[in-house]
Design a protein that fits this description.
With 203 residues, this protein is an all-alpha fold. It is 76% helix and 0% strand.
């Protein structure tokens, strides 16, 4: 009987310690779902307001433990993922342009696309840098700059997509590149939507 009581007491004390730890760490238990898995409901709900919610959720749900339920972290991660995707796509385009069978005319067109995408990467990179420095005192001005730069990045990506409407490129290379550019543009669109949502909540 005494042994049973002691076991229950230990279990009670252990449970109380867990509750105390949870209460003292904002990002710990609040963001965990059943089985200790990160809760992605906040991400799903936030992504539902974007133009491409399925892409948004698939891109960000793996970062749920870092995002928790924080609109600023959500916007930050969305922008970071968009930047990484743009950089990877730029590298892919250079690699594809070096494939055998690509005509000189196609290579020239791809150089223009890479230039547009490089401008987009630069704008997204500036936005990331500013978001890292953003605080309460400079929020309004900094957020306005970020929104402007991400919008400019979208314009560069849209210009790049429009280039595929012509007949300069055809075949597998065109299909492969267009798929990548569309993905980057949609990711950036989602990032801007989440940035705007964060700005509205903060304001």
């Amino acid at each position: 009987m005494e042994k049973n009581f002691s076991s229950k007491s230990v279990a009670t004390v252990f449970t109380m310690l867990i509750l105390i730890i949870c209460a003292s760490i904002d990002s710990g238990c609040a963001g965990a779902g059943a089985g200790g898995k990160p809760d992605t409901r906040f991400i799903r709900t936030s992504c539902s307001t974007t133009t491409y919610p399925t892409l948004c959720y698939s891109a960000l749900s793996n970062h749920a433990s870092a995002i928790q339920q924080n609109p600023k972290l959500l916007a930050h991660v969305a922008l970071s993922v968009s930047l990484d995707t743009a950089r990877t796509t730029s590298v892919d385009m250079v690699r594809i342009s070096r494939r055998a069978g690509i005509t000189p005319r196609e290579v020239g067109a791809m150089r223009d696309y890479v230039e547009e995408l490089s401008d987009s990467v630069e704008q997204l990179g500036r936005s990331m840098s500013e978001m890292n420095r953003m605080n309460r005192s400079n929020f309004g001005r900094t957020m306005s700059d970020i929104q402007t730069w991400v919008s400019a990045a979208m314009t560069d990506e849209d210009t790049c997509m429009e280039g595929f409407a012509g007949k300069v490129m055809n075949g597998a290379a065109k299909s492969a590149i267009r798929t990548r550019i569309v993905n980057v543009a949609h990711m950036t669109s989602n990032a801007l939507a989440l940035i705007n949502s964060y700005a509205a909540v903060h304001g």
